[in-house]
Amino acid sequence: MIMKWMFLLSLVTVGSLAFLKPGEVEKPEPVAVIELFTSQGCSSCPAADRLLSKTISNLNTKDPKILALSFHVDYWNHLGWADPFSDKAYTRRQYEYAKVFHSKSVYTPQMVINGTREIVGSNEANLKNALQEAAKRTPVTTFEILNAKIEDGNLLKVKYALAGDYQGCKVNFALVSRHETTPIKRGENGGKTLTSDNVVRQFIRVDPKQSGEVLFNPTTLKRENMAVIAYVQKQTDYQIVGAARTEIH
């Protein structure tokens, strides 16, 4: 049994792990998933994009495990600049959160932390407070395995294994480009060059199983600029109860 457990540990690609003594159980570390809803066509959004990038680059061991995603919505596209990373599916996701928060409208930039708290995406003080709250909560679901490998030409196969309580949940898988730089030619940000990190390029939601796999088709994305962020989310109140990230192999 111990040998089997150590073998599973050797497969995990979701972060650094210390070897456990016989009989010890690893305590899941707190996790914070930040979902930023943004647009290159919104003049208020670059500040939030910079805050997200700053948060990613300033992570340290005292923070909870922070996984950040940038969802580009499409409802700003009619103002002269069509955001190349926007998708109607990401707009629909933001409207799903609006229902959870009992709001009749959506806005950018908006950050949602762990599915249960929303703030203006450029408000650094509120983000810090939300992350401090997240640091007090222990996930009830963990990824024992999460790895991603390009197979069969250009298909990206993501394999996962879950442990803990994931009843009544969905598992979200986001293929992100780690860094993007875009010269903006028109619209509210016309003439600027914008940068974004962890931009969601493809998004898949599945019913949870103890183990399984999903497939992405990364097309033009470069391997070194890709990563996969996975998180388990309740279907009722949208609380995120576990998350992990892996690079591409």
From TrEMBL:
It comes from the Bacteria. Transmembrane segments: none annotated. Pfam families: DUF1223. InterPro entries: DUF1223 (IPR010634), Thioredoxin-like_sf (IPR036249). This is DUF1223 domain-containing protein. It comes from Salmonirosea aquatica. The lineage of its organism: Bacteria, Pseudomonadati, Bacteroidota, Cytophagia, Cytophagales.
